[in-house]
């Protein structure tokens, strides 16, 4: 995949006099923006204001032919949206080859809807040549408060924020620093010292999504021990709630819990700009939150084991018992290609399958996961095929070169989908694993004790974090 036109940093600053003439009340306004209709990003919704202030930044990696930025402003209603206005910016005319673009854009009326107002937009464009000529200095200012598709990473042990811009190559996250795979023009790292609590939970900007295939309210008190480490917890259990919301759902199907994950991602994108990612894990799985401080939160995390691994194998080698799943996966890929032509990169010669009881998706891939879920869920594709297939498609589509994955393996997770001989030592030694028999008094106590140790550490260092 070639990003011939470099990167575009878009700042949606604010709006003024945003008013749909057909609406009496003030707007609950948000901006949807894209460089092609297949991949859209959006701001948060600002409630009850004609003059909303967003100050949100977005990054687009421009492919050849993507020469326009499209802006659509809506008034959000319950279950619907009313158009306020739309505009487009000709990047060739106003942005490419220039030092910057800072303007108020007037919103022309949408046919059939009288609209008015302006939106304040700042654009910065960086090309590969500029990166080369800069001698390694960063071209993009570090993302600030709300980053929907940004490149800022916290190195919790060093207390530094690493602002990373990649042009044509990737970096490997080793320990506490980003190391280039090889010397390459246009690759640079900017390290900025900031004041940060070095021992804050590495998951403190993450939603913890906890799934149980049976309604087990009695185990919620144990799962609550995870709360201090996450921005919020979401409980997913059959018939637990009547509808899906930010913190709970009642999805019944054991085959397709990824549907609830997708719906919660939509809620996060609309209403929770501070959430950087979603960490899914099963009730019977375990994670040691502080053991994830060496992981890159802008990448996907997925388990790899020796027995039932995250693996994509040639379709010619698929075992007999998986041929039904192979057929379903092929149908899903075909439907994806028809529904989203030229958007996703897929390899029809492989078949992906894995246990999917633990995984992490960063916010920047939420839209991809949401749209791919629509196809897999409609087809009823089982979680253990659907999730690794979707992750493989996202990986092939979003990697900056054909050789550098956006997926980091959780190679040290213990067990697999069906392993049930966990012992207390596994909980201590491994940062994650599956599965724990919570009816086993000894294991349950060991699990509780392990989390209590981390909670005590968190309380001692950051007393306000776990209140």
UniProtKB/TrEMBL annotation:
GO CC annotations on file: membrane
Transmembrane portions of the chain: 161-179
Keywords: Calcium, Membrane, Metal-binding, Transmembrane, Transmembrane helix
GO molecular function term, any single one: calcium ion binding
PANTHER family: C2 DOMAIN-CONTAINING PROTEIN, MULTIPLE C2 AND TRANSMEMBRANE DOMAIN-CONTAINING PROTEIN
Residues in C2 domain copies: 1-105
CDD domains: C2
Key word Transmembrane helix present: yes
Listed SUPFAM superfamilies: C2 domain (Calcium/lipid-binding domain, CaLB) (SSF49562)
Official protein name in the record: C2 domain-containing protein
């Amino acid at each position: 995949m070639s990003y011939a036109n470099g990167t575009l940093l878009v700042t949606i600053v604010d709006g003024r006099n945003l008013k749909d003439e057909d609406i009496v009340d003030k707007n609950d306004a948000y901006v949807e923006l894209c460089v092609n209709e297949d991949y859209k990003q959006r701001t948060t919704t600002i409630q009850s204001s004609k003059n909303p202030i967003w100050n949100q930044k977005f990054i687009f990696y421009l492919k050849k032919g993507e020469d326009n930025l499209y802006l659509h402003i809506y008034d959000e209603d319950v279950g619907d949206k009313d158009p306020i206005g739309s505009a487009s910016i000709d990047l060739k005319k106003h942005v490419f080859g220039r030092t910057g673009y800072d303007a108020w854009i007037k919103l022309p009326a949408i046919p059939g809807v009288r609209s008015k107002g302006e939106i304040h937009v700042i654009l910065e464009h960086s090309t590969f040549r500029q990166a080369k000529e800069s001698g390694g200095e960063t071209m993009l200012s570090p993302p600030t408060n709300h980053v929907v598709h940004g490149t800022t990473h916290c190195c919790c042990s060093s207390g530094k924020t690493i602002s990373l811009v990649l042009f044509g190559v990737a970096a490997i996250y080793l320990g506490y620093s980003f190391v280039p795979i090889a010397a390459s023009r246009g690759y640079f790292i900017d390290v900025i010292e900031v004041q940060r609590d070095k021992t804050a939970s590495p998951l403190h900007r993450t939603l913890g999504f906890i799934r149980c295939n049976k309604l087990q309210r009695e185990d919620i008190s144990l799962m609550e021990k995870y709360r201090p480490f996450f921005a919020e917890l979401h409980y997913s259990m059959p018939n637990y709630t009547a509808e899906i919301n930010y913190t709970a759902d009642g999805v019944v199907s054991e085959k397709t819990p990824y549907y609830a994950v997708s719906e919660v991602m939509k809620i996060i994108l609309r209403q929770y700009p501070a959430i950087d990612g979603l960490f899914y894990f099963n009730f019977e799985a375990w994670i040691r939150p502080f053991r994830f401080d060496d992981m890159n939160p802008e990448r996907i995390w997925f388990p790899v084991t020796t027995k039932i691994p995250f693996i994509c194998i040639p379709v010619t080698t698929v075992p007999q018992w998986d041929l039904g799943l192979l057929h379903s996966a092929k149908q899903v890929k075909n439907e994806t290609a028809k529904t989203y032509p030229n958007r996703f990169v897929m390899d029809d010669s492989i078949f992906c399958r894995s246990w999917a009881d633990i995984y992490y998706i960063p916010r920047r891939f939420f839209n991809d996961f949401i749209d791919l879920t629509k196809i897999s869920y409609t087809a009823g594709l089982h979680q253990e095929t659907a999730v690794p297939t979707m992750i493989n498609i996202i990986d092939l589509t979003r990697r900056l070169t054909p050789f550098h994955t956006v997926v980091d393996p959780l190679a040290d997770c213990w067990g697999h989908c069906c392993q049930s001989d966990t012992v207390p030592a596994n909980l201590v030694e491994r940062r994650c694993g599956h599965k724990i028999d919570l009816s086993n008094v000894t294991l349950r106590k060991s699990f509780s004790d392990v989390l209590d140790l981390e909670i005590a550490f968190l309380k001692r260092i950051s007393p306000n974090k776990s209140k």
